[in-house]
Amino acid sequence: MCNHDTPPPRVKPRLKSAPKIRQLYWCDFPSDAQLPEFWKRRPVVIISPNNTLHSAAIVIPCSTQTQPDNKWAFPLRTTIDGRAAWAICDKITTVAVSRLVQDHKGIKRMPEDEFNDMLLLVLDCLPKPR
Predict the structure, then answer these.
(1) How much is the pLDDT for 2?
(2) Using the 8-state DSSP alphabet, how is residue 5 labeled?
(3) Alpha carbons 23 and 41: distance in angstroms, whole number
(4) Which of 5, 72, 76, 79 is most buried as measured by Cβ atoms within 10 A of its Cβ?
(5) 123 - beta bridge partners?
């Protein structure tokens, strides 16, 4: 049984600087996820604008599985490892910065036009004010 009174641990971040909007990182999602949640290490796109090393970041998780029937999947031109990937725009999530790891080749950053196109799809999956 889970003890709900004990907070989870605060983990030291592996990054040397705060993640910035439009950057791509690897994210170690929880291993105890339940479908359709994301799990394992996978690429994410940072969409929150003001992050710190000890905060949480809002991200869009990505998948390298083809997404032909997913209207919320945005095909990325910018990838973290050179493999084809899709940002899954209806799965906006918040993660601790300590879950983020930069690629061994350095930090990739999406061009602004690509990011804005992806963000339009993210916003499209959210309810609109009346």
Answers:
(1) 60
(2) T
(3) 16
(4) 76
(5) none
Q: Which is it for strands 86-88 and 56-63: parallel, antiparallel or unpaired?
A: antiparallel
Over residues 107-130, the mean pLDDT reads 96
pLDDT in tens, 2-57: 667 888 888 889 999 999 999 999 999 988 877 777 889 999 999 999 999 999 99
Please give, one letter per residue, the 3-state secondary structure of 62-109: EECCCCCCCCCEEECCCCCCCCCCEEECCCCEEEEHHHEECECCECEE
- The string of pLDDT tens digits covering residues 87-118 is 999 999 999 999 999 998 899 999 999 999 99
Biggest CA–CA distance in the chain, Å, is 48
Amino acid code (one letter) for 64: T
Sequence-distant contacts of 36-40: CB under 8 A, at least 24 apart: 38/88, 38/91, 38/93
Architecture of the domain made up of 23-124: Roll (2.30)
Q: Which two tokens stand for residue 119?
A: 């963000």
